[in-house]
Amino acid sequence: MFMKACRSVVRRPFAVHWTGVRESTVYLDVNCAAFGCNNKAGKGSGLSFFHFPKDSNLRKQWIYYCRRKDFTPGDGHRLCSVHFSNKCYDQDPEMLSTLGLEYSFRKRLKPDAVPDIPLLFEEEQGNSEKPSKVRGAYAKRQRAEVLNEALNESLSLPFDDSLENISIPENLSTEPSKETRNKKVQVDLHPPQRTRSNQTDERIVSLKVKQRSFGTQTDETITQVQSISSLSNQVMEDIPNDSDLEADDDEDGEGEVQTATYKLRQDTAPMDEKQFLVSETALAELLSVCRYCSAECTPVIKFFRGTFIYTSSKCLNGHEFTWSSQPCHNTLPWSNLFTATAILTSGCNATKVLQVFKNMNLQMFTARTYNRLQAYYVVPSATKTWDFEQSQLLTEIKDGPSQDVVSNEVKGSSHMELAGLKRAMGFLKDHVNIKTLVTDRHSMVKKYMKDCHAEKNHYFDVWHIAKGVSKKLETASKKVSGEQIRPWIKSIANHCHWTASSSEDDGELKQAKWASVVNHIANKHENHSRKYPRCEHAPINDERLWIKEGSVPYKLMKEIILSPFLVKDIAKLSPAHQTYSLEVFHSVVNHYAPKSTHFYYPAMYARLSVAALHFNENSGRQQASSKSGELQYGISYPKAKKGLEAVVKPKKTPPTFNYVTIIKQAVHERRSSECPSYRSAALDISVLNEDVPVPLTQNFEHFEKAALIRRHSSRYARR
């Protein structure tokens, strides 16, 4: 749930920079808008304050991060730099500090920066001015960093453009090394993650700070000073020669090599951590060297828990240390939770994805665990994100949501469209004043709108009517002597679209224009009717396959075109708005919730919510262009043309998935603060699912499984 802050966030507006603009040097009485943050702008505070971005997607993520109920940021609201990690800035503050340039450059956020430092909700009930107690693991890492900085200062190494002249004193270690080791082994001595038991060992802390390899010491400096090109060359020298790493390989380009400069961090939030596949042999090599004496170890995996493993290594000298593959919350590994989140937010089938992992020999949780994680954490977080998005839409653009209907609430599937319409209009009546409604030619919908909402303009989608006419003409062309109809099908469908777009809201004119096509196909272009006397096209000089008036094809076409039911609906063709975007949304729904796959109601609703989030975020994508500015197109072969024709379609810019980040944040918040255990999550789910309709099989007659098996096995069974 979003929480209200108990103080005023902004006392008066002032001019500081927004994303991508330098910070202002004017310090007025301004507070950070994040919940629980008491940072204020002031000279000497060392903090920067940033405007909320104008981009709607980024702005929603910033608003969600603030955790404040019904919060709409204005021009005077800011977020302080405490909530942004170093990767959010154009210039790394740590690098600038190392080079002594921290006061020469202003902090500037990247255009797509999102606050990624988790808020500390533990301070809510206490004195927010009091600094929070530092956890033991973080305190030890912080103490190690302080000792490391003090050690580097005592060395008094001058900064030089040439890094090859830096010498490493041999007396840094508290204990003499017993043997000479190469760089590869030294790097493996100090893995970035340590268990809580190892962190309490004073020897490990001292070894971490004082006994360091040459490669580890130069990592901080080379990454910051050395050029990317020279570093890439060094990385390429360490990669073994392999035929898969040829220069013309599309999958292993320069981008893959550049990721070798990524600096591993220990302060990354669980939902933002990168995940890497590590083979069994590489893991054995990593854990086969004792971190105390560098002797050979025998690593053993103590237990699995989905993607999580816990290992123990013991050397010949009796030293023993443990290692875990990932952080956990209580006993739940974070990667298990976010893997389940990724399966749902990508629209994949869990059974197939788990089978892929099984085929890879990748350690993974079972389908039962996935169903539990989905029900307890992923589904509530996805629906919560959609509810927030829906409220924002109703507030900002006054647009209505989509509704889903379970078929056991109505008489049959043919009644579901009317039931969905009633539910949607009932929901919107308190938020939006509906003046115009565009639907297909559903008979129940037509009657409902005529009887209950006669004051509203009810139009029909042109595409649906044109498609229905085309199908009927296609069927007629297959009859005896009907082959002359086929060349006219596309032209008549186009005529339907032209009739709607050129007649505005004049129903009689639409009917007159539509009926004129019966004379047009017989090469008659005048004296159609009083409302529309003649065709508007130029004289036709080329020879066409005109249809003789009174012939069999002419009678078949006239019967379809001038059908009383069709002509009556032609008057209600929508002159402007169409349901094409709704058809696109239906295709998105089919991706996230395939019709061939069974989902229970909560999972189905969550997948529909994700589909709506994806559609809203990507429905306005622009046409892609090349580097030279030329618009890009792609060739498409319509299925209806059976390969006889091809068309070009504009290529769109790649889709974005910012909504996934918001869902992952909601999942993390639900597990870490709202429902920290399975039991609390189960109790919360039981409350949330009170309004869930009963399954369709609830009304079926129940049979005993044993009796069905006996009947199936009996040779005398009668079907």
UniProtKB/TrEMBL annotation:
Biased composition (Basic and acidic residues): 176-187
Keywords: DNA-binding, Metal-binding, Zinc, Zinc-finger
GO MF, one annotated term: DNA binding
Signal peptide: none
Pfam families noted in UniProt: THAP
Transmembrane segment boundaries: none
Domain THAP-type: 28-118
SMART domains, per the entry: DM3, THAP
Name the record gives this protein: THAP-type domain-containing protein
Annotated region described as Disordered, given as residue ranges: 169-201
SUPFAM superfamilies named among the record's database cross-references: Glucocorticoid receptor-like (DNA-binding domain) (SSF57716)
Top-rank taxon: Eukaryota
